[in-house]
Structure formats: C-alpha cells, structure tokens
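User: For my dataset I need records formatted as: sequence, then structure tokens, nothing else. Please produce one.
Assistant:
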Amino acid sequence: MEHLAAVIEASAFGTAARESPWLYPVANLVHLFGLVLLVGGIGIVDLRVAGFFRSLPLTAVSRALTPFAVTGIILLALSGAVQFAADATALIHSPRFGWKLVLIAIALANALAFRWLWSPGSEPTASLKAMALGSVLLWLTIAALGRLIAYA
C-alpha cells in the first residue's frame, strides 16, 4: 500500500496537486462544497425519515434533495482524489484518514441498504429511522475526521 501511495504522490497528477498554485486550493473548496451538498441534502432527508419536519412529504423531500447529496458525493470523490494525490504517503499513515475511509464505506453501504429497504410513499419503520439517524452521525463524524487529519 505504501508503494502505491508513493507512486500516486510521485505521479504527474500528484506533483500537479502539490505544486500548482491553484489546483489544491480549488480542490479544498470543491471538497467543502461537496460536503455541504452531501450533508445538507441527505441530512435533511435523514432527519425527515427519523421523524422531524413531519409537515414535509418524505417522498418529495427525498426526490428533491437526494440529487444534491449524490452530486456532493461525486464532488467529494473527485476533489478528495486531488487532495490524496498531493500527500498520499502521509495520509495512508494517518489513523484519522483510515477511519474516515472505513466510515465512508459504512455510510455508503447504509445509504444503499436504506434505498433498497425503503419503499417511497411509505412511512419508515423503526429500523429505517435508526439507519437515517446513523447516517447523519456517520457523515458528521466523517466530516470531523476529515478536518482533523490536518492536525494529526
């Protein structure tokens, strides 16, 4: 794994991410924007699933905000690749980065399982409500770990 990280970091992409006066800063801004779209979109949907904002129709909220969350995930993945390439060898040794990746995998699996189990138009069961609350906590924890990587 360390060899692969070193190869990525030494690549033209890694060098550009590290040395370009604008690429890494733009990737940072895009990463933040993606996080806002993801947590803002799916966070509201998850809170509605959990029982908040009952006056809002769940199916309509989900249909309106899920595309923002998906766009956020895509932006996070693309900008995260730039950030990783710039400093890959240090990141693979960061426990916070490792936990962030594990929690991302869990959060994505949770989202896929939720979409598979929930029938739009129906009120969520207690287990789906728990999955939704877990989703909010997972994404907020992932965001916090991402910010804390710089201080490890």
